[in-house]
Amino acid sequence: MRMAHVARARVVIVGGGFGGVYAALELQRRLRRDPSVEITIVSRDNFFLFTPMLHEVAASDLDVTHIVSPVRKLLHGVSFFDGDVTRLDLERRTVVVAHGDDSHTHDLPYDHLVIALGSVTNFFGLPGLEEHALTMKSLGDAIALRNRLIALLEEADTECGADVRERLLTCVVAGAGFAGVETIAAINDFVREALRFYPNLTEDMVRMVLVHPGDVILPELSPSLGRYAERKLAARGIEVRPRTKVDAVTADTVTLNDGTRLTAGTLIWTAGTTPSPLVAALPCVRERARLRVNEYLEVPGWPGVWALGDCALVPNGQTGSFHPPTAQHAIREGRCVGRNLVATLRGGTKRRFAFRTIGQLATIGRRTGVAQILGINFSGFVAWWLWRTIYLSKLPRFEKKCRVALDWTLDLVFSKDLVKFSTARTVAMAPAVAAATAPTLEKLAAARA
Question: What would be the CATH architecture of the domain defined by 129-271?
């Protein structure tokens, strides 16, 4: 007797950040043995990046692969599609994904769609900014920054680099939120500790500048912690410029809105993000460029469509405002979507999303940090220890926890690595060398003939 075919409910999650991955983890936990549901997550990267530790990769504190977890190892009961989402067709209930060397497209039909596309860097149309600035949102960004810093040190140490050392050794970070402060603190330690391996360079040649439009850095924390962080950064040679914005950027200069022109070869932009451009193309209600969702994280007017994380505006029923787009909120939103989606599939009761920020922490270099946990302020070594302890506990997979802990332990004994990571293939001979040696090779060939 032939068994009747039972249609499977298709759940498609777009985005492999905190929101998307934790929604998939929750669905995996609740539906692992349910053959009636098919779960697929789509992401351009085949790994989950633990972004709170990104600055430590840029500063050579952690190995490149130790803060990423392969999606296929992390999600056992979920199908993974490695590709770029090019369009969300809500009318046809289809996700269009491009992948492969030729970027051919696939249509992934869905019954439930979880939109967790995150955000992209916002350059605000400032002249030269997008062309010349580095960002700190991806693993590639951290590797590029590390390579840039090492390359600049190598060039500045040479005789021919003596006349341009001011440009080579000046680094500007725009934006003094968590990403900006942690990045400049980490790379400042990295560069200054590396100087002993460069005999022609001294600490007074290095200039690190932190530009911030507000009165105090780290506005997410209390003003007292922000001022403490400013004092610590200044004591370590970092120039903090509050109430200042970047106006324009060239390959050699950074112009500020107060008229100051800094000769700098590196600008790291952490001063703005905006939701994925795919969100703007959706026929949904948006506010502040983000998808407006209800208290269950559903997109109103579109049954079966859910949104969370940086691309969603999630109402806070307790305050009447909205939840901030932070990782700790995205994790809980992902779990909430997973629970509510299962409740929808099985006829259960959905739960409203409710979460209050537990705390926020930042490292500011040299085993020092600032933290605000449950309304209590911490600073100095204790805050730094809390940062490492808490984030290590949040890092997915026991294997990665062990690798990071080992990196941190070895860092107490050995100096930071100065190796540039390059993916370029080896060539037989550099073009300049080939051109210079061509006449000699021709003469040798003629003599042999």
Answer: 3-Layer(bba) Sandwich (3.50)
